[in-house]
Amino acid sequence: MKKSLLALAVLGAFAGAASAQSSVTVYGIVDMGITSQDTGAGANDRLNGVTSGNQSASRIGFKGTEDLGNGLKANFVLEQTIAADTGVLSQVDGKTAFNRFATVGLSGNFGAVNLGRQVSAIKDAYDAIDPFGDGGTIAPISAIFFNAALKGDNGRISNSIKYTSNSYSGFKFGAHYAFGEQAGRTGADSNYGLNLGYANGPLNVQFGYMSGDDSTAGAPGFKPVKNSKDKMTFLGATYDFGVAKLHAAYGDSKNQPVAGNVDNKYRNYMLGVSAKVGAAGSIMASYTVNDTRTFGGVKANDRDSKRAGIMYAHDLSKRTNLYAGYSHTSNDKNAKLNALVADQSGSMFAVGVRHKF
Amino acid sequence: MKKSLLALAVLGAFAGAASAQSSVTVYGIVDMGITSQDTGAGANDRLNGVTSGNQSASRIGFKGTEDLGNGLKANFVLEQTIAADTGVLSQVDGKTAFNRFATVGLSGNFGAVNLGRQVSAIKDAYDAIDPFGDGGTIAPISAIFFNAALKGDNGRISNSIKYTSNSYSGFKFGAHYAFGEQAGRTGADSNYGLNLGYANGPLNVQFGYMSGDDSTAGAPGFKPVKNSKDKMTFLGATYDFGVAKLHAAYGDSKNQPVAGNVDNKYRNYMLGVSAKVGAAGSIMASYTVNDTRTFGGVKANDRDSKRAGIMYAHDLSKRTNLYAGYSHTSNDKNAKLNALVADQSGSMFAVGVRHKF
Amino acid sequence: MKKSLLALAVLGAFAGAASAQSSVTVYGIVDMGITSQDTGAGANDRLNGVTSGNQSASRIGFKGTEDLGNGLKANFVLEQTIAADTGVLSQVDGKTAFNRFATVGLSGNFGAVNLGRQVSAIKDAYDAIDPFGDGGTIAPISAIFFNAALKGDNGRISNSIKYTSNSYSGFKFGAHYAFGEQAGRTGADSNYGLNLGYANGPLNVQFGYMSGDDSTAGAPGFKPVKNSKDKMTFLGATYDFGVAKLHAAYGDSKNQPVAGNVDNKYRNYMLGVSAKVGAAGSIMASYTVNDTRTFGGVKANDRDSKRAGIMYAHDLSKRTNLYAGYSHTSNDKNAKLNALVADQSGSMFAVGVRHKF
C-alpha cells in the first residue's frame, strides 16, 4: 500500500508538472502534393510543381482552454497558414501573422464570445455545406462564390468580436462585428455578418449574411466604394442519404469596384456530393457556378465561371491520408473571377498526402 | 504489490517520454479588449476598435531550463509580441522576430548571464516599480518616462550580454552591455546600463541607469547624435501598507535629436497606488509627468505631458482576468511626446480579457 | 490493490491526454557567443559583437512522427533559423519562413519520401564529412566549397521531392528533384541531385552530385545563365583511427554567372580532423581550399581562397556545451568568394554557448 501511495504521489507530482504544460496544444496540418495545372494562359501554359494545401491549407497553431468553473471556459487560438512547399508563412497587412486565428474569449452556457482575428460568420455557414469543407485548392465554394474583392481576406476578419451560440434542438447561430478602426468615422471600413444553422439527423441547413462598408481605399479586408455597402447572402443544405450525402448551395452578392460607382451583382450555385468508399476511402465532388448578373451597373454578358471538381481521399490513419484531386474551370470570355484562369479554361490535377498533427 | 510495481514501471516509461518533451515550455498571453479613444487629433477623432495588449502585451514564447548539476543551469527564451487584433507578429529591423527575448545563458550561485536580445537593465528597474508592471497601453511608466527616441526599441536591446545577480539579503543588481556592431568603430552604437534593487518586507527600492552612444544614423535602437551620449537615470520605490501599495518614481534623461546637436533634457515623475479589492479584484492607478527642461539646447516652454490612468482587474482564475481601464493624457501646446496625442488632450477606455497560457 | 487500480486508471486517463499532445515535438538550438572579426575591409575593420550560430545555426522546429502500422510512418518537420542575437527569423523569397525544413512524407521499409522545402541531396553528403558537421560560421565546408551562387539558398531547396534510402549493409543513397515552377517551361529553374554513402566500422565515404538549370533570372535558388547547366560533384571520406578521426573531401563545380555566358570552374579540397579530448571535450579542425580554375571562360589567376579553422567544444551536458573557435581566411587578390572577406585576409574568433532543446 505504501508503494501504491508512492505511485500516486509520483503521479501527482508529475501530473502537476504536466498540467503546467497542458495549457497549450501545438497542432496543425502539413498537406503537399505533386500538381499539374493547365493555367489557361495560352498554348504553352502547363505548370508542374509541388504545392501546399491542396486538400487543406497547411498550418500551424497554438491553442488552449482553461476551465474557470461553473461551465465557464477561457479560450485562445493562434493559427497561421504555411506555404509548405517553400516554407513561407502567411501575412496580414504585409507582415507575418497568425492570419487564420488570433483570438481570446470566454465560452459557457451562453455560447462563446471571441475577440480578435477570426472567421467571418458567413464563412462558418458556407464551410459547413462545402463538400471540400476544409478548403484546399481543388474546388472549394470560396473559389467561385462571392467575388474575392467582396469577401475580403479569405473570409477572415481582423479587429472583430464574434458570438457563436451553443446548439438548441439543432439550431445554432452566430454573429460578428469587425471594427473599421478609422478615427472619427465609426462604421467606415467595418463589416458585420450572421449565420443561422439547423442540423438534425441527416439534414443540415445553413444561412449566412454579411454586409460591409468602406470609406477608405487601399485598406485590407472588405473594400467597396465610398459610402457604398457590399452584401452577401448564402443559403445551403446537405442531406445524408446514407450511401452518400448531397450538398447544395445558393449565393447572392453585390459589390462596387473601388474605381467605379456602379453595382456588380452575382448569383452563385453549387451542387455536390460526398460519400464514404469502403473502410478507408472518401470521395467529394462539386459543380460550382458564378453567374454574373450585372457588371459596372449594366447587364453582364459572357461573365460566368464554372468549376467541376472531384477528390478521392484514402485514410492511412485518422490523422493521415493520401489524396488525388482534379478540377476543371471554364470562364466566359469576359470572366476573370478565378485567379488561376483568365478568360480561358484551365484544370488542376493533384496527388499528395495530408498529415494532421 | 506487483500491480504497484507495474504502475511505477508504466509511470517511469511515460515520465521518460514526457521528459524528452519537457525541455520546452510554450507559453504566452492573449489580451484583447474593446477600446474607445479620443485620439486628440481634433473635433472628430474618436477611434473605436478591438485592440491587443491593453493590460499586458499579447505574446507567445518558448523557453526551457536544463539542470547541469551543482546548481548550474542552462536557460533559453524565445518570445515575441503579437498584435492579436490582426494576428501580426512583431518585427526587429523590419523583419519578423522574437522581439521580446532571444537569449541563451547560464545561471547558478553566481547569478545569471545571458546573451542575445533582452530587456535593458534600466527597464528591469522601472518595470518593478510601475503599478502597471506588465506594460500594456493604459498608463505604463514607459509611455511618459524617457523620450521614446532615447529609450530605443521599447527598452529591448539586441547583440547584448547581461548579468543579473541573485538576491543578497534583499539586494539584487544587474548590468548589460549591447554591442553596436559597427566595423572598425568599437563603442559606436553601443549602450550599457545597470540596476540596483533592494526588496525587503514592505519596501522595494530600484535604481537604474543607461548610457548610449551613436555614430550612425538610421540604425535600430539607441539613437543620439554623432559622438554624443544619451543618458537615463531612474529611481523608484514601492511601499506596501497592507491595505494598499504606494508607488513613486523619478527619472532624469538627456538626449540629442538626430537632426541637431543640442541637448534635450527631461525630468519624469510618477505617483501611483495598487491594491487588492476583495478576493478576486485588484486596482492600479498612476499619475505620470514628463517635465521637458531643455529642448534643442534652450529652456523648454509648454512641452510637458501628463497622464492619469486607472485599471481594475477581476480574476476569473490565476491565469485569466477581465479588466476595465481608463487613461487621460494632456500635452502642453508644444508637447508631442506621446504617439497617441499630438499637442492636445486625449483619453482611452478599454474593457477586455487577459488570458495567460 | 484498489489503490493500485486507481493509480493505473489515473495514469490511463492522463496518458490519454498526454498522447493527444505527443504528436508534436518542439525542439531547437540557441547558440550565441562573443565574437571578434577581422573583416578584411582595411586597416580599421575590427568587428566585435554577439553573434548567433557560431557552432550550429540557432533554430526552432516542430516535428512529429505517426506510426501507421506495418512499419509505415507519416512524418513532418517545420524548422526555421533564428538570428538569435537580434531575434530575427529567417526568410525565403523575402518572407518569414520555415527556411530549413517544411516537409511532409512517408517512411518505411522502402526508405523515406518527403515533399516540400528540405536539404539537397549533395548537402547530405558534404555535411556527413565536414568536421564542423552542424554548419556554424567558423569553418564549414559550405563556406568554401561550391560558389554560393551555385549552391542556391544554403543547400536548401523549395518545391522538391526527395527520396532517402534505409541502410543496406552500410550503403545508403538518396535523390531529389526540385521543380522550377515556370509555367510552360518544365525543367526551367529546376534542379536535381543524388548522394551515395558507405558507412561501416571506422570508414565513412560519401559521394554527391547536383545539377541545375535556369531560364529565369532573379528567382531564388539555383541560378545559372539561360539554358545553361550548373554542376557540382562531391567526394569525401572520414576514417576513425580511434584517437582521432581524419576527414578529407574533394569538390568539383561549374557554373555560369547570370551576366555572362562563359564558365566558371572550381575545385575544392578539405583536410580535417576531429577528436574527443577527455571525458567532456571535443576538438574539430579543417583546412579548406577553393581553387578557381576558370573565371569568365578564361584561365583564372589569383582567385583562390583558403580557410583554416579550429574549434574546441566542452560539454556541460548532452544538450549544452561551451565552445571557443577561431578561423583564418585568406583570399587571393582577385578572390571574392567569401562574404566575410573581400580580396584580403580575415579572421574570426568566437567564444560562446550552445544549448539544444
Give a quick rundown of the structure:
The structure is a homotrimer of 357-residue chains. Helices cover 9% and strands 55% of the residues of chain A.
Oligomer: homotrimer
Structural class of chain A: mainly beta
According to CATH, the fold-level topology of chain A is: Porin
Question: What general form of chain A does the structure show?
Answer: globular
Please give the number of β-strands of chain A: 21
Give, in spatial order, the strands making up the sheet with the most strands of chain A: 1-3-4-8-9-10-11-12-13-14-15-16-17-19-20-21
CATH class of chain A: Mainly Beta
Q: Give me the CATH superfamily of chain A.
A: Porin
- The ordered H/E elements of chain A are HEEEEEEEEEHHEEEEEEEEEEEE
Number of domains of chain A: 1
> Largest interface, with Cβ-Cβ < 8 Å?
A-C, 50 and 54 residues
Strand proportion of chain A: over 45%
* Head-to-tail CA distance between termini of chain A: 40 Å
User: What integer value in Å does the Rg of chain A equal?
Assistant: 22 Å
Please give the count of helices of chain A: 3
Low confidence ranges of chain A: 1-21, 217-225
In the CATH classification, which architecture of chain A applies?
Answer: Beta Barrel
What is the arithmetic mean of pLDDT of chain A? 87
Helicity of chain A, as a percent range: under 10%
Largest sheet of chain A: 16 strands, antiparallel, barrel
GO molecular function (chains A, B, C): porin activity
Main location (chains A, B, C): membrane
Subunit structure (chains A, B, C): Homotrimer.
InterPro entries (chains A, B, C): Gram-neg_bact_OMP, Gram_neg_porin_domain, Porin_dom_sf, Porin_Gram-ve, Porin_Neis
